[in-house]
Amino acid sequence: MVDPRMRKIYFKFYEETYKKSHIDRKTKELIAIAASLASHCKGCLEGHIKKALKYGATKEELSETIAITMGVSAASMVDLTDIAAAELRIRHFEGGLVQQEPQEVSPEE
After folding, report:
1. Would you say residue 5 lies in a domain?
2. Tens of pLDDT along 7-53?
3. What span, in angstroms and rounded, lies between the C-alpha atoms of 90 and 99?
4. For 39-108, where are the alpha helices, taking DSSP H only?
5. 46: domain CATH number?
6. Could you tell me if residue 94 is inside a domain?
7. What is the C-alpha to C-alpha distance for residues 102 and 83, in angstroms, rounded to an integer?
8. Could you give the CA distance from residue 13 to residue 18 in angstroms, rounded to a whole number?
9. With the C-alpha atoms ordered 106, 54, 8, 17, is the resulting torsion angle positive or negative?
10. Domain membership of residue 75 as a residue range
């Protein structure tokens, strides 16, 4: 249903993002897996998992990518509901909002 001209522009952009750059191809595929999950694109997810495996991703790297995506997705729900509660002046629990930034974890931990 996409106009052929727009499809051509999209594919050109897509190809450009996968050209050799500062980020290696395996990492690009792991990022694409996270983006596919976040945007609910089943075809994208399957394609990028296959490509990630082709470029050397391990099952542990795939699992960690999925877990990180799950964490960000959960955080977005907490954020949105906190904002909605504040705007609606709803306070279901004592203590209110806990504004705490995630702690940076060193590579050794």
Report:
1. no
2. 999 999 999 999 999 999 999 999 999 999 999 999 999 999 999 99
3. 17
4. 42-54, 59-88
5. 1.20.1290.10
6. no
7. 18
8. 9
9. positive
10. 22-88
Q: Does any domain span residue 54? A: yes
33 in Cβ contact with 48 (< 8 Å): yes
Which residue type is seen at 100? Q
Mean residue pLDDT across the chain: 91
What's the total number of domains in the chain?
A: 1
Q: What is the pTM of this model?
A: 0.78
Q: Output b/e per residue, 80-107; b: 16+ Cβ within 10 A.
A: eeeeeeeeeeeeeeeeeeeeeeeeeeee
2 located within any domain: no
Contacts of 32 (CB under 8 A, 6+ apart): 44, 48, 51, 52
Confidence band for 109, pLDDT divided at 50, 70 and 90: low
